[in-house]
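Reopening this one. Same input as before:
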Amino acid sequence: MPGRANLLYALSAVVTCARAYGLAALDGVHLDLADEAGLRAACLQGRDLGFDGKTLIHPSQVGVANEVFAPAAWEVARARALLDAWEAARADGRSVAVFEGRLVEHLHASEARELLETARSLDLS
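Same output, byte for byte:
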């Protein structure tokens, strides 16, 4: 069967279990080294399902995986701005902030910090 539609439940369960235990979730390998489009599609699907990265079997796959899973410049800038809004609200004694018209709580600030840490570890910040 082309694609991974038959695996969506299992893939989602892996992400759910990893999150429940505070672990990173890594999507499985893409075996066809000549199929960069398929690798990209699998990486995009994995990212959209919540995976943190992808296990790789060849150096030629690193570029695509990094491109898909690394935070984009706009995501880094947005995370910084969200944290600024959160920290300003906390300094004013509030437990929530409003950023881009949406409520921001501790969970959102934690996610932004994680994204910024990932960007720092990849020298993207």
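So the earlier flakiness isn't reproducible anymore. For the record, The mean pLDDT is 94.
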